[in-house]
């Protein structure tokens, strides 16, 4: 017996006699030489319910079972499936594993197959965690592209005309990330760049590039081997504050070579063609649905180069593309001009609003005598009510963030709850009637009066005041207040922000309470009329944009015969 030989060896070396349990028949027991160290702890596997060390082979199935599907153990599982299909029962593992070991593998198999077919991890946009570094190879084995049925699916496009074909976007363009450019890098003259802010600008229609959108940086910050974008290329914004802006891009229709700046994705054509047809295609909601369907409602949406590489475009013949572009250029030009005129009217109305507010709160309006008014520090008439709370107990309360406030006019763009905005961090608790002021980028001048109790972002200040809140809101919208806040915040170049101490030291021209009521009455009446005029112009713009989108979609999908030109 092996136990007797081990016992005799120990007695020969002067060791004390020990009682050993006889090894099972047919089992091979390892003999460790005196003075040698064990490579494993004696009972490392017992706590997992596995066999003793002498019978254990391989690694823990729950911890390393994924490797068996993709790696060396996958062969035994595939062999087991073949034997079961042939009616030969469960085979023994080819690597010496017992049936009990095989049962562990087959119990884990359904779980592992779910991992193989799981969707790719998409970081914070989908809520899935990023893969751990030690399992990087495993996640690289998970299929990243879509299935054949998804590739051939033209549901987003509709009926495919004869001679048209669907191609992956990456087969037509070289897709890459833009260079890092900050506000501090911008200079008056240098190398032209376009950042994501210019892509979302109102001046960008998506079908051409305006010189007002081009910024300049020093050639020294351009990385080596970086290729500029020339005519026929695109610059996509990689971030957007709303789902509507996901897919916004600039089409380069001139011979100016431009670099893609911060938070952008560049598309460089692989062949020198006029790609304005794709500019019209990219503007349709149907094509953008390929990007938006993978995004989750978060504070900022991200569209990475990987997302664009997985999209597809419909490519008509070259002569059809030219006829579609000529048709849309002629039909969209008067629509674009009409939209520009109405937006100019809105800009003039907003400028008139600022002038009226600034003029009135300064006491230069009829019925006001500012000789009895006094200058005071903001901290002596108002107070920031910092009250950070966990959002768990306020899921159905009103939630207000800087993105939900219109700039410069004190209007609330949308209302949502804490649950709908997916708030997880601490927010300020405010009450109805409080003044909510965005401390980030004070020159945007985002301030409102809370319509109800709720939570606001930590980037905002809930403010209480000893004066009338409506009057203080109007004063905070005036040019006098905005200029003071801008001067103290502009020193923070990357992210302008005003802290509580700086806010408290701003000066305010405070009238008596009776004059405050007169100011509120005058500005409420005048601003209501301005709001009505702005709403009418926005309704006209919305109808024009809807007509333009419909016209573009029917042209780029072949539903309109454009071969005859305009």
TrEMBL record:
Residues 29-71 have a biased composition (Basic residues). Residues 161-330 form the Type I restriction modification DNA specificity domain. Residues 116-129 have a biased composition (Polar residues). Keywords: DNA-binding, Endonuclease, Hydrolase, Nuclease, Restriction system. The keyword Repressor does not apply. One of its GO terms (molecular function) is endonuclease activity. One of its GO terms (biological process) is DNA restriction-modification system. Pfam families: Methylase_S. Residues 1-137 are annotated as: Disordered. SUPFAM superfamilies: DNA methylase specificity domain. Residues 16-28 have a biased composition (Basic and acidic residues). InterPro entries: Restrct_endonuc_typeI_TRD (IPR000055), Restrct_endonuc_typeI_TRD_sf (IPR044946), Type-I_RE_S_subunit (IPR051212). The methyltransferase is composed of M and S polypeptides. Belongs to the type-I restriction system S methylase family. This is Restriction endonuclease subunit S.
């Amino acid at each position: 017996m092996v136990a007797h030989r081990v016992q005799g060896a120990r007695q020969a070396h002067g060791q004390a006699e020990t009682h050993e349990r006889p090894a099972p028949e047919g089992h091979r027991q390892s003999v460790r030489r005196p003075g040698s160290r064990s490579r494993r702890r004696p009972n490392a596997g017992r706590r997992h319910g596995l066999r003793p060390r002498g019978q254990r082979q391989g690694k823990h199935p729950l911890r390393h079972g994924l490797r068996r599907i993709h790696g060396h153990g996958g062969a035994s599982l595939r062999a087991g499936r073949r034997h079961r299909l042939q009616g030969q029962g469960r085979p023994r593992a080819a690597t010496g594993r017992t049936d009990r070991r095989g049962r562990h593998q087959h119990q884990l198999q359904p779980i592992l197959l779910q991992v193989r077919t799981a969707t790719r991890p998409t970081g914070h946009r989908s809520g899935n965690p990023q893969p751990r570094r030690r399992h990087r190879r495993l996640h690289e084995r998970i299929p990243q592209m879509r299935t054949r049925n998804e590739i051939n699916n033209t549901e987003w496009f509709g009926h495919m005309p004869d001679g048209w074909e669907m191609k992956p976007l990456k087969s037509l363009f070289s897709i890459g990330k833009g260079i890092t450019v900050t506000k501090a890098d911008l200079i008056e003259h240098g190398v032209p760049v376009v950042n994501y802010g210019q892509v979302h600008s109102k001046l960008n229609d998506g079908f051409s590039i305006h010189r007002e959108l081009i910024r300049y940086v020093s050639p020294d910050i351009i990385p080596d081997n970086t290729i500029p974008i020339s005519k026929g290329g695109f610059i996509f914004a990689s971030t957007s504050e709303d789902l509507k802006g996901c897919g916004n891009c600039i089409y380069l229709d001139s011979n100016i070579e431009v670099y893609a700046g911060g938070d952008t994705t560049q598309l460089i054509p692989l062949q020198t063609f006029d790609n304005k047809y794709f500019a019209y295609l990219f503007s349709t909601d149907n094509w953008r649905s390929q990007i938006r369907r993978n995004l989750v409602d978060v504070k900022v949406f991200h569209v990475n180069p990987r997302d664009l590489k997985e999209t597809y475009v419909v490519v008509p013949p070259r002569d059809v593309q030219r006829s579609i572009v000529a048709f849309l250029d002629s039909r969209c030009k008067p629509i674009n001009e009409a939209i520009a005129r109405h937006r100019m009217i809105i800009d003039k109305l907003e400028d008139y609003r600022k002038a009226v507010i600034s003029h009135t709160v300064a006491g230069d309006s009829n019925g006001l005598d500012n000789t009895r008014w006094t200058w005071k520090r903001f901290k002596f008439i108002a107070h920031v009510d910092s009250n950070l709370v966990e959002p768990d107990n306020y899921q159905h309360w009103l939630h207000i963030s800087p993105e939900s406030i219109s700039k410069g006019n004190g209007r609330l763009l949308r209302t949502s709850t804490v649950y709908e905005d997916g708030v997880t961090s601490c927010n300020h608790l405010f009450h109805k009637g409080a003044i909510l002021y965005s401390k980030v980028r004070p020159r945007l001048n985002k301030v409102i009066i809370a319509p109800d109790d709720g939570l606001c972002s930590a980037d905002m200040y809930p403010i209480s005041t000893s004066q009338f809140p409506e009057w203080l809101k109007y004063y905070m919208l005036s040019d006098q207040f905005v200029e003071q806040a801008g001067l103290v915040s502009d020193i923070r170049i990357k992210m302008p922000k005003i802290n509580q101490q700086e806010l408290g030291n701003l000066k305010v021209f405070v009238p008596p309470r009776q004059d405050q009521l007169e100011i509120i009455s005058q500005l409420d009446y005048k601003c209501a009329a301005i709001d009505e005029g702005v709403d009418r112009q926005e309704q006209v713009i919305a109808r024009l944009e809807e007509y333009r989108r419909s016209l573009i979609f029917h042209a780029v999908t072949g539903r309109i015969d454009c071969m005859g030109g305009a």
